[in-house]
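Progress against Task 2.4 (sequence-to-structure conversion) is shown through the following example record, which the project officer requested during the mid-term review.
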Amino acid sequence: MKPLCFLAILLAPGLALADVTSPADAGRVASFDILSAKVTRTDATLTFRMATAGTAGVDTPAPIGALAGAPVHAYVWPTSLDPATVGFEPATGILALAATSHPDFDDTPLYDENGDGDPANDGLDWHSHWVVLVPSEDCGPGALAVRDIPEGATPRLPKTWPGLPLFIDSPDVTPVFDGPVVSVAIEVQGAEGASFDGVTSALRVNANLHAPLLCVTDVFDIASGDLSLPGRID
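Structure tokens generated for the chain above:
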């Protein structure tokens, strides 16, 4: 599926659902073929879940040996939450939680996910991010990018921002993979009633290393089928 403009998720009304289901499609890679997406709340902890037709997390990008053009695979939960909810500048785009893998670079400098004593070699291991997504024609017609930070700009950013010129946060939260299911439990204040969807996608670092730095290049599957964010956080 070609990249789609996620701006539609902010505009499309729909029936609120506790979870979003999707039929299996034999034409898709099973580990990215979404069967359901769900977000549950226990006090201030949100648990994002996605079930797939195959073994979630088994397919990771092939390394290319460089940052420029580096591929990223992601399980993504776009939400209606304002980016300020997790510490970004308010009203700056679509706040999404993502579980990602990218073997050519590490964007979690504060943490050592694989436990080998080197916090700078963990990009292949699945890890979590908050990202702010915005439409970007520079990534292709109707495509999205992670919002750039222009040189010299000083926007509000989360405390665990990894230092990249992007609206991206790298909290110390490890995705859990259990057969066909991937889940991420993370603390978020004020999320009750927010809406969500589920997406599996590929991204790529711009060969020019900026403007934009990180583009959504392919959408493997969308839980709702139309990015209408029909899920509702209970």
